[in-house]
Amino acid sequence: xxxxxxxxxxxxRASSPADVSLSGMADDREMLRAASELARDLHxxxxxxxxxxxxxxxxxxxxxxxxxxxxxxxxxxxxxGAGAVLALYRATLFIHEITxxxxxxxxxxxxxxxxxxxxxxxxxxxxxxxIHIIHHSRARYGTIxxxxxxxxxxxxxxxxxxxxxxxxxxxxxxxxxxxxxxxLSLLSxxxxxxxxxxxxxxxxxxxxxxxxxxxxxxxxxxxxEVGASLVAIALIGGLASRALPPRIVLIYLGVIxxxxxxxxxxxxxxxxxxxxGAPLTITxxxxxxxxxxxxxxxxxxxxxxxxxxxxxxxxxxxPYHALGEAHRRISHALSQNSSYHRANYxxxxxxxxxxxxxxxxxxxxxxx
Length: 368
Prior knowledge:
Layout: H1 4-12, H2 29-38, H3 47-70, H4 74-92, H5 94-100, H6 109-118, H7 132-135, H8 159-168, H9 170-185, H10 189-198, H11 215-241, H12 246-270, H13 282-287, E1 291-292, H14 298-301, H15 309-314, H16 323-333, E2 344-345, H17 348-359
Parallel strand pairs: 1-2
Helix pairs in contact: 2-16, 3-4, 4-12, 8-12, 9-10, 9-11
């Protein structure tokens, strides 16, 4: 006999999860139990996969970047630039794994990632650590205290293009943050509070303010910030003094802009943005997130396991390389009427279309 949860899920399958109230939704115990039990043996990160993926993506990305800079043929420079964006985007998204990793199981990975990617691209891991974990909190997901959430489906239609435009401007923002405001904040405690609270996190919620770091994380923060500031100052100084040709700086910042834009598109379809601001159960969080399960393209625009974003919310400590196998096991074990299948989508396009459709519905725009 089907559980009550499965019967209710079956009756709602034709409707959009965004049209179903997530507040007060009970947990689907069968789904949660199946996810936990079927993935029990998949939680150990494989060092060979992590290191080879990171180093290979980094090597290819910087080689493609060099090709874009050195090529005198415009078409080849564009192709190399696109390759650099995709490869360095993949390498950059290991910042997500770093926030969830038990670092004792993968010693040195955070250090090497910051030296190869975080500091050169001025996106050190402290910008995401201690922030992303809040997004997974049962009490804070989808609320005003969630740094990675906005109720987009009830916000003004211009919010989406604005978010994309702002992401494209990220290189300028991080240059100012690390090359100007960061160093100046050492001379002003008031400015330092603003820099730490408002300008030191990869977040989309403008109301979120992070707290001052402490302990080992504070020590990590210091050396990462110093490294990123040195890169930003070198870029600004090199451009101002003409020691660096403007073309090189523009290509470099253009690749960072491409990474930021691609990541913002991924972020926009990672959720259905249907929370009304009240705390949600794990099942409700799951149904407000998405898995994109078909084809090769999701591996490009949502790499490092992020195409299984809904599954990640069920099992946040699962290594990225294990998400595909976990999805296969859970999908086969649970019936098509299970809540699990309601978060699965086939491609990027219907999710973008759905989001744009929701934002232009009459009467939905109740928040600025």
